[in-house]
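Protein in question kept in full:
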Amino acid sequence: MSTGTDSHLADVLVVGGGIAGISVAWELAAHADVVLAEAEGDLPVHSTARSAATYIPGHGSGPFRALIDASGPRYAALPELLGTPPLLTPRPVLHLAEDDTAARHLEATLREQRGEPGAPVELSPAEARRRAPVLRLAPVAAAWTAGACDVDTAALHDGYRRGLRARGGTLLRGARVDGLRRDGAGWSATTTAGHRVRAGVVVDAAGAWADTVAALAGVPGAGLRAYRRTIAACPVPDPSVLTVDGAVLPMIADAAERWYLKAEADTVLVSPADETPAEPGDARPDELDVALALDRVGRATTLGLRSVRTAWAGLRTFGPGRAPVVGARPEHPGFHFVAGQGGSGIESAPALAALAAAVVLGHPAPADVDLDPAVIRVT
């Protein structure tokens, strides 16, 4: 609710307009007046806009796997709710072990996830090479995640944005929060664009900047750590090799997380799966990481990559234990974190947003999300 040209009164102030902030704001707006403040003039800009755009069952720590599992049916329902095109396109993932180190990683993954919905299944080395003829050699071991998909992240974010407005929410762009303090039973915030917002509750969904926002409010940080991840788009000399049996080449990932590739039009996206500690900011690719990606993919495949069309980097922010961080500390009621999505922010967004909104509103956890909120509460 606006109370003037630059003043707003709301039930909830959400800080951050990436996928975490925009999705939880939409969920909250079904029950409350919401103002979302985003530092950038465009949306999305940072991690959400630079994602590999994948939905991979079995990816990440246990809490993320539960959220990804619950997000599948929600992804199927979102097009009708948000007026988007279909958001998921099937793209299986082939997990490769080219040496004993990767084989041990793959064995541990298969053992840990055995019996979980959508878990990867073991594949023979010969079958792995049949499904991905671009492999230079048959791997030592392999696995297959059949239910993985590409995500239309632009349509997803835009759908949540339009949905927020349809529910009466207010979106402030170019409005970095630069002041945040307790004001009676609620909070008063100011932004660099001159906005003043009074809200009963603050939701800190500022990604790599979430602990910085907490410091503005006098709230201890959540122990978040940001890491740079590099991706390069490389033209393929013979794009016909990117199709197998009439379908696009599966995403191929080293089981020890040393590289991955994903075909896109006449290019492949390649990454050395780097995790370089970084401060919050506009991440830039490192030439060495790009070279490592080309070298590792070149050793593993016959794609013959020789050049880079473009490269970029994004920040992946992890909470303690590589689980998301959701909720408020008892000694700081009304200030909630929704952060630490790591490399799973897109694929877990629908379920995480619903669970986080329930926590903020004091509602029961959604019945379809098999994750106790206590497991991911801020400590």
About this structure: The longest strand covers residues 225-235. The CA atoms of residues 19 and 329 lie 23 Å apart. The longest helix spans residues 62-82.
